[in-house]
Amino acid sequence: MDYAPSAPALAAETHAFQVLLEDGATASIRVYGKGPRIICSHGNGLAIDAFQSFWRLFTDDYETVVFDFRHHGRSSPYRQPIPHVWPQLIRDYEAIMQGITRELGPAPSLGAFHSMSALTTLLHAAEYQTPWIGIVGFEPPATPPANYPEFQSFRTENDRLAGRAAQRRTTFPNVRELFESYRRSSAFAGVDDAGLQALAASTLRWNDDRQLYELACAREFEASIFTMQDLPGAWERMCSVRLPVQLVAGEPKTRTSPFVDMERAFARDGGFAFTTVPDASHFMQMEKPAECAAIVRAFHAGLT
Questions:
Q1: Most CB contacts within 10 A, which of 137, 182, 211, 285?
Q2: What are residue 193's DSSP bridge partners?
Q3: Has residue 25 been placed in a domain?
């Protein structure tokens, strides 16, 4: 079942399927194109179709596999609280990886992930066997150790995001209203109208009973993810990953970012590559899709 309105101007997938998760929820997976496999996913409260201006740049010469996490995008709706959300997301990730292999066959894979999905990818890679030849993480929100100078600013930002998520408007009569809201938001000032339309369409789902649109990712679920609970030793666990990893941070021109220094410290401790996208924010893949895709391609070229 397709739970979300279609994002605009997106070509039909070559294959689509659902992965059943351990509690009966499902995750939506779509496949585009042929070639070496690249797998992509999204950040908290968003949807992979919101990033289509980025990942569609791979579909001509990669088997591009994209997926929505539980209760996001086209995956099944949120029904009840999850007591330990981050351990659940990591177990879900294992089910999704196994589902991709079952459906498409095993293949060496390149990962290109934003924020929450990048963090989950690295946490999963620290505990499970993976298909990765390399991982590109666009600002994974790795909480620094408490004695690091970056810790307090990062925690303050995440607490702010959790509080804002908990207060989000939940219903809309049409997609246009959310599009206009995004258009007024300084957080998405660098995203063009086509990107904002994709963002609005993919982060809503139609409710037949209520005859209106509602957030695809319930605000209480989004807020619970931002609180970053149940992640003891996550920084150290991820720094133990022995795979090629490229971390990418947006570098805004006019304001500071809580991510640049944190990502640089994370790269230092993990022995990972690090680069920035100038004049870009946390949503750099929507703002500068060609530049972000070029980073992924250059990273991949260095692996082969």
A1: 285
A2: none
A3: yes
pLDDT tens-digit profile of 99-148? 999 999 999 999 999 999 999 999 999 999 999 999 999 999 999 999 99
Pairing of strands 109-114, 132-138: parallel
Q: What is the mean pLDDT of residues 58-68?
A: 97
C-beta of residue 28 within 8 angstroms of C-beta of residue 62: no
Q: Which domain holds residue 230?
A: 15-303
Between 258 and 296, where is the model more confident?
296
CA dist., res. 206 & res. 302, Å (int): 43
Tokens of 213: 């649109």
Q: How many domains does the chain have?
A: 1
Mean pLDDT of 168-175: 96
Burial environment of residue 167 by CB neighbours within 10 A (0 to 12, 13 to 18, 19 or more):
exposed
Q: Which domain CATH number covers 59?
A: 3.40.50.1820
Look at residue 117 and tell me if it is in a domain. yes
Instruction: Please tell me what DSSP assigns to residue 82.
Output: -
Tokens at 52, concatenated: 């289509």
Distances (CA, A) of 23 to 80, 83, 88, 106: 11, 13, 10, 25
User: Considering the domain boundaries, does residue 9 fall inside one?
Assistant: no
Output DSSP code: residue 190. T
Say how far apart CA 233 and CA 218 lie, in whole Å.
Answer: 28
Using a 10 angstrom Cβ sphere, with 0-12 exposed, 13-18 middle and 19 or more buried, the burial of residue 212 is middle
